[in-house]
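Forum: Protein Structure Q&A
Topic: Joint prediction for protein chains with partners

I've read a bunch of threads here and the consensus seems to be that you should model interacting components together rather than docking separate models afterwards. I'd like to see that in practice. Below is the full input, 564 residues plus whatever partners are listed. Could one of the regulars post the assembled result?
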Amino acid sequence: MFNVVKAELRKMKRPSLTLVTFSIVAALSTLFTSLIFLRLGTSSNRPRGREMVQSVASMSKSDGGYYSFSLMGLFIGLIALTVFASQSSNEYTYGTLRNLLVRQPSRMKLLAGKFLAMTIFSALLTLVAAAVNISLSYLESSHGSVDTKLWMSSAAISGFLKTFGNMLLGTIGYGLVGMSLGIILKSPMSAISISLLWFMVLENILSAVLSSATKWLPGNALSAVSAGGAKIFSYQRGLVVSAVYLLIFGGAATVLFKRRDVAS
Amino acid sequence: MPPLAISVQDLSKIYGDQTAVSHATFDVPLGSVCGFVGPNGSGKTTTIRMLLGLITPSGGSGKVLGEDIGSPEKYLSKVGAMIEGPAFYPMLSGRENLKVLADLGGFSHSRVDVLLEKVGLGQRGNSKFKTYSLGMKQRLGIAAALLPNPQLLILDEPTNGLDPSGIQEIRELIKELADGGTSVFVSSHILAELEMISEYLVMLRKGKVLFSGRTQELLGRQKAITTVKPEYLVDLNKLVEMAKNFGYEPVVENGAVQIPVGPEFGATFNRAAFEAGITLSSISTQQPTLEETFFEMTGE
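Posted by a regular:
Agreed with the consensus. Here's the joint model:
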């Protein structure tokens, strides 16, 4: 399996993938942090939710340094989903799966190795997002008169680690959906467009039209995991609902990958 | 029976109501070069994919290097393969593409450079695969197949897209590998090439094996043609009559008489023509080529 991970990472480190992906994550991180500090309010009574508008006082709390990072779950998740989907379905599009299976005939090892390599890539994505968000928050804190004394406290560090873990978990979840659709549909275009359409459009429409469905939608569940819990979704419920969806998608993709003839 | 590189019995693959391969049975001796021929859609690639564990057979059994094709992990580390044209990642260089496969198979990266030189891509190893010509892609595919230093090399149309010198290089490479003890199972549309290098042949048509065995045995089944050319064209009809008197069915073509008989008949016919007062300007015998045999057997 180590050989599979090594081979996958060699493919993934190509500049056209890494530069583009990390640049998008860095740009989004910059946008999020800048917006938070541009719209910084002065009232200390502003309620602390997961809004883009925060007060100076709330941003001076221990989680102020990584607050903008904590808002990026959906976006990092969708980037991971795109990468996972294209990396898995391109093997069918390019016809390279046959080469891989000749060199690694164990399909389960190949699949697990691919997933592990993409998980490492996701961790790097999340790390880049965190690094850019926190660095920019420090830079912009002086302009907004935000006190950063608590940002390096032990509470801040443990809070950041928890947030990072949740973000990574959510990102891997989105990625797994992308990877599963990539394998099932064998086409990067179909896998990416269907999942983006679902997570960005259809789920929002369903939530608005059918409020009872809100607590069962996969995007809401994964977002709840990334955010460490949300208004409509507790963290635990998010974990359980996400796990059910991922088991269904992942299971179907695994069975297909193992049994399907490689005829292209 | 000699040790076998490939052995299949009653191997079949059925897709819905389409039979791609039907009860194929053949053996490929270890250390030999075996040509795999058949028209497009005859089931060659499907058979090769079943041998490599990419497609599950609908029926029958097979062994590669003595191991059951149901357990490809037991033999694929000793097998190199290029299936249905080279398939690589377009955004990676040729060298990086080979390194991906070397990582996957646990082979040393030093072998990548050796193989790129061997197939004539040493100078273009760092160029992206998508910039390669068809011939260069084909060469990279062959380099990838050679990565494990294989005991058995399976090549599906390796000379596609290659120019004549490239085709000759591949022929030499296959001969070199065979001389070193590698078994080679190669499909090609260029039957003249296969005739030159293949000691054994497997011929498929519509998923069924028409022939499997030594190439010479197949070619020996077809009658040779002896062509007799008279000095004067007016003697053509007399020569035709003489051939008929010997019990053959001659055909007149391009001012010569073609008699379906081997070289042993040449002296007898020459003597008879001389006695009849006919001077022959040439007499030659041509063995049927693999291509002619192929067309006759497959009816294509």
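Chain A touches chain B at residues 3-4, 6-7, 10-11, 14, 16-17, 90, 94-96, 98-106, 259, 261-263 (CB under 8 Å).
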